[in-house]
Design a protein that fits this description.
By secondary structure, this protein is of the alpha/beta class. Helices cover 47% and strands 7% of the residues.
């Protein structure tokens, strides 16, 4: 038994004999007793074997969305958690910039030459994959050095526990200065990504068919081994992450893959390429990756030299449309999360059954399960469910598994807590098409949202969960879940309100627009209050963790900008990734999103009152101006919670359980002919006065 097996056995005992748990979102260890008082295991013991050899963990993006500001203490806790959950193949990329500097030095590039190549800390994931360069930089030298030392500790501790970390590899992305030193090299500009503009887009890509590619790849892996120590021959390299290749003919793609694996093996003859299968789901233009292209690309690598991560297998599997990746070993992964945005959802039945069904297919090369969320801390129940399968012999009833999960999470068989989670099992966790990007922290526009938003399905679970408060109010995991479920309910309720407000706007129902605007602001204030009651939902914590790495005031400003820009604007002005990594945190809701929605509601009123045409660009301009002004502010937010979570949650249930947004057919909110103009009619005196007032008082707000 290695450390992972032993830690997994300990976790099994902790959960099933002590009704205790350790999780991303708090620990329940109140039931842990003195050693001599612990319940014994029967004489035969408990014997479990792995269902499949690999349990994979982490997405390239997770290292920016979630772990970017972690210190060693936090990393050590996470690695311990990995071991307890059976993870034996984690992605380890921390500190690689130090190795890149040493490598590029061998090719004549100085650290100064890399200044506009490395992005800031919060955006390194996408610079590493060639999507951007230099944004939110420059990267300070002391950050690079301390992250390198941290990376070595992470790597060594993972291996001490018996894990086989996946390390980065060269994927062809080179700095601008490289072209000056090697003018004959076959270097091309990547396509712009996510509407990021120059000079931060269009990273240089060195074609793998160029001899220099093999030289750099060999040097980089040689330096990895030199600086980190012996490894387990697993390397991740993503050449076309949401980027269109220069050519899409199968022979070219086969040649790229052949040269890539050959260059890895020059430094490490046992190298195995761990490829994120996302390229085949969203490869810049996913329509280019038809069967001939995928077959061609994968045919350039022997089956025993590649493992593919089927990153979004719970919803968009690739293995089943590529004849099992044409024989390549693959890991069935669950994504569920984009940008680290909060949101509860998923299909427990799919997660419980599909991996076993897939692995049982004849000649199927599936070799493991994995979790590849872009951001962690959310939907822990879904990821625990998948990781638990590493030690199962087959699927069990989801209800049975969930009952054990709840007992271990709260240390109790509380009736109300179990009913709450069973309700969630039947609703929120019974489908994969729920909304992941909640409107409450997304674009302010009149566009309708895709996906399912059903607050009436969430409310019964929330009602039951708060009823468990008298018994569970002191359990950390319970308090977290109360905040999270309250957040989910209010977010989905807001979604419904937005839809009705847009319908009211289309019918020019001015009073209804105003009413919903006021009620939405009240809802946002209530959401702010419940979030402020828990330490894991505070903007101040994220900013504090970023600033603690600063060695100078200038670095403090740089790291603060990285932290706040990622979760709001995500890149330069007018990036299509705005709000992609939005969070529902106290401070962010009250001071940022509530103000943006006030802009939206006031603008709708202005358009109706003045009989103007709706112009999204006018609204966007006001929003961008507000965003950049707010980002440049003091951004001083609490790092300690305020208010009692359970009291606030009970107040919210009482307030909102009978709440109904006024529908378009509600006579009370329809316009009268004498008070509000309809489409194409002249504005009434009241609307004209309102229009003049909006112009006088709101001109800076709107324009």
């Amino acid at each position: 038994n290695d450390g992972v097996s032993l830690a997994s056995g300990y976790n099994h005992y902790l959960q099933n004999y002590l009704n205790s748990s350790i999780s991303w979102t708090g620990d329940n260890l109140d039931s842990v007793v003195e050693l001599e008082s612990m319940p014994p295991v029967d004489d035969q013991g408990i014997h479990k074997s792995r269902f499949l050899p690999w349990s994979y963990y982490l997405n390239v993006c997770t290292h920016s969305y979630s772990t970017v500001w972690w210190d060693w203490t936090r990393w050590q806790r996470e690695i311990d958690w990995m071991a307890m959950r059976g993870v034996n193949m984690p992605l380890m990329v921390t500190g690689q910039e130090y190795v890149w500097i040493r490598t590029f030095e061998q090719f004549g590039l100085s650290f100064e030459d890399l200044g506009d190549f490395f992005s800031g800390p919060a955006f390194l994931a996408w610079q590493r994959m060639g999507n951007i360069q230099g944004w939110a930089g420059p990267l300070p030298t002391d950050w690079i050095e301390v992250q390198f030392e941290l990376g070595k500790k992470i790597f060594q501790y993972m291996r001490e526990l018996g894990m086989k970390p996946v390390l980065p590899a060269f994927a062809g992305h080179v700095p601008e200065k490289f072209i000056e030193l090697f003018p004959d090299a076959d270097v091309i500009d990547s396509e712009p990504w996510a509407d990021i503009i120059q000079p931060w887009c269009c990273a240089k890509f060195l074609e793998p068919t160029d001899p220099l590619y093999g030289d750099i790849s060999e040097a980089f892996i040689t330096n990895l081994i030199k600086y980190y120590g012996p490894n387990d021959h697993l390397y991740n390299g993503d050449q076309f992450n949401e980027i269109i290749p220069a050519r899409v003919d199968p022979e070219y793609l086969k040649g790229v893959a052949m040269k890539t694996i050959a260059s890895m093996k020059k430094a490490d003859p046992e190298a195995i390429w761990v490829l994120q299968g996302w390229v085949f789901v969203f490869g810049g233009d996913a329509t280019i990756w038809h069967e001939p292209q995928i077959r061609g690309y994968l045919s350039g690598v022997d089956n025993d030299s590649m493992i593919i991560l089927d990153v979004w297998a719970e919803r968009e599997p690739v293995w089943n449309r590529t004849k099992n990746y044409f024989g390549k070993p693959f890991i069935w992964c669950q994504l569920l999360n984009f940008g680290g945005q909060p949101g509860m959802g998923g299909d427990m039945e799919v997660t419980m059954n599909t991996p076993f069904e897939t692995a049982a297919l004849e000649n199927n090369p599936m070799v493991g399960v994995g979790i590849t969320m872009e951001g962690i801390f959310h939907n822990a129940v879904m990821f625990d469910l998948l990781l638990d399968q590493a030690w199962m012999t087959g699927p069990i009833k989801v209800q049975t598994w969930l009952e054990a999960f709840v007992r271990a999470r709260y240390g109790s068989s509380n009736k109300h807590a179990h009913e709450a989670w069973d309700t969630l099992r039947k609703t929120v966790y019974s489908r994969n098409d729920r909304i992941w990007f909640h409107r409450i922290v997304r674009e302010t526009s009149t566009a309708f949202h895709n996906g399912i938003s059903e607050p009436d399905q969430v409310l019964p679970a929330l009602r039951q969960l708060v009823r468990a408060g008298p018994e569970l109010k002191d359990v950390a995991t319970y308090r977290y879940d109360v905040v999270d479920l309250s957040r989910q309910y209010l977010s989905e309720l807001f979604e419904v309100g937005h839809t009705i407000q847009v319908l009211a706007f289309e019918s020019r129902y001015l009073y209804q627009i105003k009413y919903i605007n006021d009620k939405a602001q009240g809802l946002l204030a209530d959401l702010e209050d419940i979030l402020a009651s828990h330490e894991d939902f505070l903007l101040g914590t994220w900013l504090r963790d970023a600033r603690k790495w600063a060695q100078t005031p200038e670095q403090g400003k740089l790291f603060t900008f990285n932290a706040i820009n990622q979760i709001t604007q995500w890149g330069p002005r007018k990036s299509i990734l705005e709000d992609y990594a939005a969070k529902q945190w106290s401070g962010l809701i009250g001071d940022y999103y509530a103000q943006r929605w006030r802009l939206f509601g006031d603008y709708l009123q202005h358009v109706v009152e003045c009989g103007e045409k709706y112009d999204q660009e006018v609204l966007n301009s006001a929003k961008y101006n507000f965003t950049w002004k707010w980002q440049d502010g003091e951004l001083d937010y609490p790092t300690e919670p305020t208010g009692d979570t359970i009291e606030i949650a009970n107040y919210l249930v009482a307030k909102y359980e009978t709440f109904v947004w006024p529908g378009p057919d509600n006579e009370r909110y329809k316009p009268s002919a004498s008070s509000t103009s309809s489409k194409g009619s002249s504005a009434s005196l009241q609307s004209l006065i309102g229009c003049l007032f909006a112009i006088l008082c709101g001109i800076t707000l709107i324009f």
